[in-house]
Amino acid sequence: MSPSTDRTTKKVWTLDQLGALDLGVAEEDLAIRDTTRKALADLARPHVAQWYLDGALPVRDLAKELGSLGLLGMHLDGYGCAGTSATAYGLVCAEVEAVDSGLRSLVSVQGSLAMFSIHAYGSEEQKQEWLPRMATGEAIGCFGLTEPDQGSDPGNMRTRARRDGDDWVLDGTKMWITNGSVASVAVVWAQTEDGIRGFVVPTDTKGFSAPEIKGKLSLRASVTSELVLEGVRLPDSAMLPGAKGLSGPLGALSEARYGIVFGAMGAARDALTTAIDYAGSREQFGRPIAGFQLTQAKLVDLGTDYITGMLLALQLGRLKDAGQITPQQVSLGKLNNVRRALAIARECRSVLGANGISSEYAPLRHAANLESVLTYEGTTEMHTLVLGQALTGHAAFRG
């Protein structure tokens, strides 16, 4: 066949090659990413579609496996934590969410919410008691902030902690809590006479219960629970001494949002590579559908969105490693990348046609999961208002 009629390319680029995404990333960080990708190929990928269909995840077993890889609280220092760079943690979040958003939620809630809160705000006794066991996955943590009637406005939470002698007594309900019913410890935020404070609550404490939430259409490969606190009595030492007011839980949320900036792009990449591979093997009218202009237009647009999102994530990683990242920049990353990832996953499903609704293929599962990711750790509306205030100087959260 002459070159003028040969329609095959001389080279097929991967998405990461096309965006030169590894350029400038430390070799150690890339090695951690690659090790995680290889481990998850055996540990989770063969099973995740069934976990999703079953609406169940073997959290305790997975936590120990992830802990043995050093992935739980990996960006924290000391107490058995790996102390990696923020960029390495982000790249790991991308690899974990490329498998499933529910699995990344397990990692994020453990490391960036529960462990981070104890590490950043806890007493030395609290750190020594919980962090080493949480880093290995022996102890699982959860983070109790959201309530049935208070999601985006946690300052109006109804959970109360009152003094009773030298003790604290907690009453209230938390909702949509990842890991809740399998956790050994819960970081619970409550109103006190002195403002919002955080408490380290062993889940075997009398009056604490965590019924699992069933019937989810998203994040099915994740344990999601309600937390019910009915006269939960704790010693004074259970309070997190370093957190007062909303700055405590919001600081932890910013850590988790940072992981989502990368994680969402992992889900997008997995959906997109699935669509590209499928388009190359699915033949219609005597040729692969990858050879048709309309299919290529979809893949090019989606690939451009993915590469753009990853470049943003990597820039935020560099800022975080330099100690210069701001909550507004994290909001920018979360808002942009989750919206892009959701759009990518939905359109990738269309490339697969009818086969796209089968559990054999990941894009629709990723799209369903990303509907939750779009909402938790700050809704699209809330991050839009954060950025609106940053750009105009006017707060528009009320009125």
TrEMBL record:
InterPro entries: Acyl-CoA_Oxase/DH_mid-dom, Acyl-CoA_Oxase/DH_mid-dom_sf, AcylCo_DH-like_C, AcylCo_DH/oxidase_C, AcylCoA_DH/ox_N, AcylCoA_DH/ox_N_sf, AcylCoA_DH/oxidase_NM_dom_sf, Glutaryl-CoA_DH_mitochondrial. Residues 142-232 form the Acyl-CoA oxidase/dehydrogenase middle domain. Its cofactor is FAD. It comes from the Bacteria. Keywords: FAD, Flavoprotein, Oxidoreductase, Transit peptide. GO terms for biological process: fatty acid beta-oxidation using acyl-CoA dehydrogenase; fatty-acyl-CoA biosynthetic process. Residues 244-391 form the Acyl-CoA dehydrogenase/oxidase C-terminal domain. Residues 27-138 form the Acyl-CoA dehydrogenase/oxidase N-terminal domain. GO terms for molecular function: fatty-acyl-CoA binding; flavin adenine dinucleotide binding; glutaryl-CoA dehydrogenase activity. Belongs to the acyl-CoA dehydrogenase family. PANTHER family: GLUTARYL-COA DEHYDROGENASE, MITOCHONDRIAL. This is Glutaryl-CoA dehydrogenase.
